[in-house]
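Notes from the 1:1 (GR / supervisor)

We went over the backlog. Supervisor wanted to see one worked example end to end before approving the batch request, so GR pasted a single chain during the call. The sequence is below; no edits were made to it. Supervisor asked that the structure be written out right there so they could see what the output format looks like.
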Amino acid sequence: MRQGSQPRFLLDVMLGSLARWLRLLGYDTLYFNEGEDSVLLSRARARRRLLVTRDRELAGRRDAKGVILLRSPQLCRQWSELVVACNLRPDRNRLMTRCGDCNTRIVPLSREAARRRVPPYVHATRRRFRRCPTCDRVFWRATHVTGIASRLEKFLQAARLSRARAATGRRARRLP
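Structure output shown during the call:
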């Protein structure tokens, strides 16, 4: 990975929730819910991505270079482990810049173009819209964004705490 560049991830079947949240945090994250271990390793290498898994056998393979093994089944702890393993420094400017479903960067959509794509009330009460060029979903800031933003803020706090604890050699404390 180049200095200052963001890591690109490939997550396996055990980490679907983490994949979605990484995308919402702005990380380029592919998710594969099927395939043999050798196929996953091959795809990660070919696409120059870090393979992230909870599968100990996969991580322990001799040909498993660039594989990150997460131990926790809990989403927030998985995030903390990944922060430490990759020295992640999430950027608030990247939050919600990727489609949570397909990983594509979302782009602005004019209010006029959104008119025929969103409910009338949404068009009347919202000014900014974005669209995924791959799956064609339309996004706007709705009430659920507050909950997402709150959860993302917890991830950002967990990242700071995990990095601080890793720097001092102490174990990360239990996170919500």
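Supervisor's comment: The radius of gyration is 18 Å.
Batch request approved.
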